[in-house]
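FORM 7B - TANDEM STRUCTURE REPORT

SECTION 1: FIRST PROTEIN
SEQUENCE AND TOKENS:
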Amino acid sequence: MTPPRLSVRAPATSANLGPGFDALGLAVRLYNEFHVELRTDGELHIRVEGEGAGEVPLDGRHLVVRAMREAFERAGEKLPGMDLHCVNGIPHARGLGSSSSAIVGGVAAASALLGRSGPGGGPDREWIYQVAADIEGHPDNVAPCVHGGYTVAYRDGDSWGRPG
């Protein structure tokens, strides 16, 4: 039996737009891609090409892996071993939400591996958004990365809100 494989693509974002500091965000047509193949031996292997190659950790400290681990833990599961191949098109430390893309990509991959689905059978975007915003701490980059387009995001009690 072949271990499960999946791919996730997450966009760059621009946030802190105008007076909407920590609230307004916009998805941009620049992407990171994350390809995951589960391993039966429990090992973790990471390969990165493009932006950040040679600069980011290639172990459990990798941001995509940390996001996946958090998502699995929230579901009461343990992160399995995997081959993770990151193809990064979003520059790091340039204000384009590369960390949000990594977090959303990791949570989205975990969500798919956990078998979570949203209304209509697609990705459970609301769960992905809540987990990713908790990890990131600022929903302005995470919301457009998950939902696309132009977004308004805010804290609503114990959860992250987003109009309509």
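SECTION 2: SECOND PROTEIN
SEQUENCE AND TOKENS:
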Amino acid sequence: MSDVEKVFDVAVSARHLHLTQETVDILFGEGHKIEPAQPTKGQYLSTTRATVVGPKHTFTNVAIMGPCRNFNQFELSLTDARTIGMDVPIRMSGDIEGTPGIKIVGTVGEVVLDKGVIVAKRHIHMNPLLAEELGVKDGDSVMMKVESDQRTLIFDDTIVRLSGSPMAKTVSHIDTDEGNAAGVSKRGKGYVVK
């Protein structure tokens, strides 16, 4: 594997929701479909938006990711958490036990979640061939260098999430606070530092 193939996309994720179909039905009407904003495979940014109401602030036009999941989750940055007036833990996606809840408002209804608000831990969805080359496995913590014109930065404690297919692209997800720290607004390039 060449050094070029070891460089991967780093995507900056703004605040967003993952919802069950049941929650989508309550918020937007029975049978509402979460449609992709652009044709894509796998997880996608949908055309559907909601309002999230916290103790101190309300976020409007919050993106909902598709397809629907079997749990509800609101992901935001630490800056967002302070703005909305909540103490939010840093967790891997899906690890929502013991997390705070939030109120979500749609076009026809609203839901108050009893849990599911997290700051997503930065991670790399890694191609298994790259993981083997680097000698890492699912759940390992690595250092990731994110390059930019003026604020190149090394992030420690970045979790490897092994992709199932050897054809899968490696991509990292960081939040807006991390993107700003590294000088990356939407997409950048990164690699694992040995």
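SECTION 3: OBSERVATIONS ON SECOND PROTEIN
The longest strand covers residues 44-53.
Residues 4-11+122-193 form a domain with the Barwin-like endoglucanases fold (CATH 2.40.40.20).

SECTION 4: SIGNATURE
Preparer initials: ____
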